[in-house]
């Protein structure tokens, strides 16, 4: 299983590198749409990819560069 989780919707794709995630919860806190949460292992999980607006706050806030927002054309 790859550590990279990609979730896609028409506005943006979220690439999450689970190996880099330290479970600080910052991305979960700043997401205005509640797209992210921490799973049972304390790693970020993309729960509602269809709600992502592609604002990039999670990517900007992550101190470990574990999240990348790719805006779709």
CATH topology: Alpha-Beta Plaits
Contiguous low-pLDDT stretches (5 residues minimum) are: none
| CATH class term | Alpha Beta
Strand content: 25-35%
Number of helical stretches of at least 4 residues: 2
Number of domains: 1
Radius of gyration: 11 Å
Level-2 CATH architecture: 2-Layer Sandwich
Output the helix-strand order: EEHEEHE
Strand order of the largest sheet: 1-2-5
Shape: globular
Helix content, binned percent: 10-25%
N- and C-termini, Cα separation: 28 Å
Structural features, described:
The protein starts with a strand and ends with a strand. It is globular and about 30 Å long. By secondary structure, the chain is an alpha+beta fold. The chain has one domain (4-71): Alpha-Beta Plaits. The chain has a 3-stranded antiparallel beta sheet, with no helix packed on it. Strand 3 and strand 4 form a beta hairpin. It contains 2 helices and 5 strands; from the N terminus they run E-E-H-E-E-H-E.
Topology:
Blueprint: E1 4-8, E2 12-17, H1 26-30, E3 36-38, E4 44-46, H2 57-61, E5 67-71
Antiparallel strand pairs: 1-2, 2-5, 3-4
Provide key terms for this protein.
two-stranded antiparallel ribbon; Alpha-Beta Plaits; 73 residues; three-stranded antiparallel sheet; alpha+beta; 14% helix; single chain
């Amino acid at each position: 299983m790859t550590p990279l989780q990609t979730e896609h919707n028409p506005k943006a794709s979220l690439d999450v590198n689970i190996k880099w995630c330290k479970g600080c919860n910052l991305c979960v806190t700043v997401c205005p749409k509640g797209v992210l949460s921490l799973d049972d292992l304390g790693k970020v999980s993309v729960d509602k990819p269809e709600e992502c607006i592609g604002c990039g706050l999670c990517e900007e806030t992550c101190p470990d560069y574990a999240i990348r927002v790719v805006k779709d054309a």
